[in-house]
């Protein structure tokens, strides 16, 4: 038999356990403990939590298991779902994570191409669907080529080291995602950090960086903690003036920002000025997993030779490739999906502002309700759940100390009624805890 877990014996193991327990206690004491709620249904606007939270969901909207998938067009397949827990904290911006066609594409890919490759790409892990998806991603972004990774975290970990040498410089927004920060840490280029979206500071740093061979400005297209959008037009102008390249991480933009959902570069009219895009397949594009880099062909060719997370990690599983590929088909067939979210975002932002809350960012479906205090964010989120609204409090170290918030994320498949229920719950809970007068 396998028995239960075995604790390692010895003084070093005991000392480690004690140290870890004390560190965990510190996190609890600081009120920044992150606990995970367990979902017992599919991802969607309405959920059922394990242990009975929320009402059951009907077919298509998050129902568990093997019910047959409804044959109704996007986004109507969610509308028959009775209200249970309403989910406002997924990156499921377009509601594609449980879209029937996306699920069907995954099942077909699984059946035809198997569970996985048991290999990295360059040994025996490249299938026709991987090549097709890379071609589709490049076409979607109007770039020359694309390369898949297991995640965008990996894409960010792989690019800077492969591209930049000690002769080069990278200029990074101070609030860039952790994976960009880590990717930059791994490279040997000269590092400059500019103040968040501060073009004056970026210009100063670009001037300092003139002595290097190559300059790369790296920024999130949309910042996930604040819901603000990088001033890409200005960044590209400065890049042109100081002969720099521009890299954007589009995880919170791909699929829904811009007239055709191409992202921040399309929204701001600079598709021909941004050289490199990294993004994820794990948010709007079906939500399974995976990431990619898209850009000039020689760069993609180099990444296939040199990028460590690509070279030394398994190929994306066929089912995951199937999901993303179908999500991109849906987006390229019509821009209706990409456009479907803006009015809902506007409804939430204006109603919450009228209620007296401060919502960070502008026009983005990430709507951070700014509260300041970590405990307040945490207890309010718990109380929201009691009212059937699933939101999460964010506090240090995910956001700076004193800037705790509840991050609400709007999805194309939320109904107006869902949004109004969320605003009502916030108003009640905010009054109860003194966040509103
Ligand atoms: N970049 C940004 C801006 C993100 O928000 C995330 C995910 O949270 C990532 C990168 C990592 O993406 P993935 O989940 O595909 O690793």
Automatic annotation (TrEMBL):
The lineage of its organism: Eukaryota, Metazoa, Chordata, Craniata, Vertebrata. It comes from Atrichornis clamosus. PANTHER family: 2-AMINO-3-KETOBUTYRATE COENZYME A LIGASE, MITOCHONDRIAL (PTHR13693:SF102), CLASS II AMINOTRANSFERASE/8-AMINO-7-OXONONANOATE SYNTHASE (PTHR13693). Its cofactor is pyridoxal 5'-phosphate. Pfam families: Aminotran_1_2 (PF00155). InterPro entries: 2am3keto_CoA_ligase, Aminotrans_II_pyridoxalP_BS, Aminotransferase_I/II_large, AON_synthase_class-II, PyrdxlP-dep_Trfase, PyrdxlP-dep_Trfase_major, PyrdxlP-dep_Trfase_small. This is 2-amino-3-ketobutyrate coenzyme A ligase, mitochondrial. Belongs to the class-II pyridoxal-phosphate-dependent aminotransferase family. One of its GO terms (molecular function) is glycine C-acetyltransferase activity.
């Amino acid at each position: 038999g396998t028995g239960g877990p075995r604790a390692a014996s010895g003084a070093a193991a005991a000392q480690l356990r004690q140290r870890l327990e004390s560190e965990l206690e510190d996190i609890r004491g600081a009120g920044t403990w992150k606990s995970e709620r367990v979902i017992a249904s599919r991802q969607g606007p309405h959920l059922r939590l394990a242990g009975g939270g929320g009402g059951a969901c009907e077919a298509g909207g998050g129902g568990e298991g093997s019910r047959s998938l409804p044959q109704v067009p996007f986004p109507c397949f969610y509308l028959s779902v009775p209200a249970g827990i309403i989910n406002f904290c997924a990156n499921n911006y377009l509601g594609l994570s449980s879209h029937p066609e996306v699920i069907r594409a995954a099942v077909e890919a699984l059946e035809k191409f198997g569970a996985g490759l048991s290999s990295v790409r360059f040994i025996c892990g490249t299938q026709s669907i991987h090549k097709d998806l890379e071609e589709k991603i490049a076409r979607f972004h109007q770039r020359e080529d694309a390369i898949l990774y297991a995640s965008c975290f990996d894409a960010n970990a792989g690019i800077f080291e492969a591209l930049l040498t000690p002769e080069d410089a990278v200029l990074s927004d101070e609030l860039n995602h952790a994976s960009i920060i880590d990717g930059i840490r791994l490279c040997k280029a000269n590092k400059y950090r500019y103040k968040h979206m501060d073009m004056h500071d970026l210009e100063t740093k670009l001037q300092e960086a003139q002595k290097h061979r190559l300059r790369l400005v790296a920024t999130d297209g949309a910042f996930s903690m604040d819901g603000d959008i990088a001033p890409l037009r200005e960044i590209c102008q400065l890049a042109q003036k100081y002969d720099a390249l521009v890299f954007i991480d589009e995880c919170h933009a791909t699929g829904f920002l811009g007239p055709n959902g191409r992202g921040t570069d399309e929204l701001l009219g600079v598709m021909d000025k941004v050289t490199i895009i990294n993004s994820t397949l794990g948010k709007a594009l079906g939500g399974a997993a995976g990431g990619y880099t898209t850009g000039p062909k020689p760069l993609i060719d180099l990444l296939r030779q040199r990028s460590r997370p690509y070279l030394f990690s398994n190929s994306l599983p066929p089912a995951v490739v199937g999901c993303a590929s179908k999500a991109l088909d849906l987006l390229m067939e019509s821009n209706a999906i990409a456009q479907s979210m803006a009015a809902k975002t506007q409804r939430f932002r204006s109603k919450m502002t009228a209620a007296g809350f401060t919502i960070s960012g502008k026009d983005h479906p990430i709507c951070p309700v700014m509260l300041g205090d970590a405990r307040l964010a945490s207890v309010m989120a718990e109380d929201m759940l009691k009212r059937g609204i699933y939101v999460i409090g964010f506090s240090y170290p995910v956001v700076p100390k004193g800037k705790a918030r509840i991050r609400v994320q709007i999805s194309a498949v939320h109904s107006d009624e869902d949004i109004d229920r969320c605003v009502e719950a916030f108003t009640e809970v905010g009054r109860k805890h003194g966040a509103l007068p």
